[in-house]
Automatic annotation (TrEMBL):
InterPro entries named among the record's database cross-references: Cys_synth (IPR005856), Cys_Synth/Cystath_Beta-Synth (IPR050214), CysM (IPR005858), P-phosphate_BS (IPR001216), TrpB-like_PALP (IPR001926), TrpB-like_PALP_sf (IPR036052)
One protein family per Pfam: PALP
Enzyme Commission number: 2.5.1.47
Keywords: Amino-acid biosynthesis, Cysteine biosynthesis, Pyridoxal phosphate, Transferase
UniProt xrefs under SUPFAM superfamilies: Tryptophan synthase beta subunit-like PLP-dependent enzymes
UniProt binding sites for pyridoxal 5'-phosphate: 71, 171-175, 252
EC class name: transferase
Cofactor list: pyridoxal 5'-phosphate
Pathway: Amino-acid biosynthesis; L-cysteine biosynthesis; L-cysteine from L-serine: step 2/2
Residues covered by the Tryptophan synthase beta chain-like PALP domain: 6-278
Protein source organism: Sphingobacterium wenxiniae
Name recorded for this polypeptide: Cysteine synthase
Record-stated family: Belongs to the cysteine synthase/cystathionine beta-synthase family.
Length: 290
């Protein structure tokens, strides 16, 4: 018999059939919305909390705090509830109402502030007081180690080692860092492609960080190429995915899909895998699907 934690990972890999027309290129989406809290962040949340417990850095009396744009917070709220841990999540006020309500449903306290940078500063200040333990997904190796342990091996296995390109949105960069480390160890010729918003665009879950806030776990040498994606392109691809492929996901997935299709149109043959980060139901109060 499985418990809920056992259902994290081993998500499906499905082929995209209708968004490109090169018969020698296969494009696959890894459906991370199938995780129990609905996103790829379930993996990192579990590894960060479980590893901190195993090292004795936190215990049942610890108060946890984390800044999040949404998916990590929901995942942490679920994992914290399973371990009986107190958790405060700090999130931009612009986040969809569904996200706040989901975190609160799991029992987390939610604090809404102006933007992600302010949220990160607030969480670090409260942790510095000694009252809270900050998980700090932006600098925590347990974030990307989750993908070395799980996501990378799953992709390698499910493509029978034929993957040529891995594409991921870049937020905390944990997913792309961990998958890059694992996949490059299997085949150094695999191309690792990140996507980020264009200068004027806002895409939830993907960031173009100011230098001072660039995640400390990010190593630029592990990414072969970065593709800029506009908000318009990401929105259009998100709608394409649900209407033409039946994949109901958020805008960061649309951004990653746009980058994957761009690569598919440039190469003669290959096997491309992109991360479908989450589920679309946490964006229904926005105009994403309008």
């Amino acid at each position: 018999m499985k418990n809920l934690i056992d259902t994290i990972g081993n998500t499906p890999l499905v082929e995209i059939k209708h968004l490109h027309n090169n018969p020698k290129v296969k494009v696959f989406a890894k459906l991370e919305g199938n995780n129990p809290a609905g996103s790829v962040k379930d993996r990192a949340a579990l590894n960060m909390i479980r590893s901190a417990l195993e090292r004795g850095e936190i215990n049942q009396q610890s108060k946890l705090i984390e800044a999040t744009s949404g998916n990590t917070g929901i995942a942490l709220a679920m994992i914290a509830s399973l371990y009986g841990l107190e958790l405060e999540l700090v999130m931009p006020a612009s986040s969809t109402r569904e996200r706040t309500l989901t975190m609160e449903a799991y029992g987390a306290k939610v604090t809404l502030l102006d933007n992600m940078e302010v949220c990160r500063d607030y969480a670090e200040e409260k942790a510095a007081s000694g009252e809270y333990y900050i998980l700090n997904q932006f600098a925590n190796p347990d974030n990307y180690n989750a993908h070395i342990k799980t996501t990378g091996p799953e992709i390698w296995k499910d493509t029978s080692g034929k993957i040529t390109h891995f594409v991921s949105a870049m937020g905390t960069t944990g997913t792309i860092m961990g998958c890059s480390i694992y996949l490059k160890e299997q085949n150094p010729n695999i191309q690792i492609v990140g996507c980020q918003p264009t200068e004027e665009s806002s895409i939830p879950g993907i960031r173009r960080w100011p230098e001072a806030y660039l995640p400390k776990i990010f190593d630029a040498s592990r990414v072969d190429r970065i593709i800029d994606v506009s908000q318009t392109e990401a929105t259009a691809r998100t709608r394409d995915l649900v209407r033409k492929e039946g994949i109901f996901a958020g805008m960061s997935t649309g951004g990653a899909c746009q980058a994957a299709i761009q690569v598919a149109n440039e190469i003669e043959e290959g096997v491309i895998v992109f991360i479908a980060c989450d589920r679309g139901d946490r964006y229904l109060s926005s105009d994403l699907f309008g």
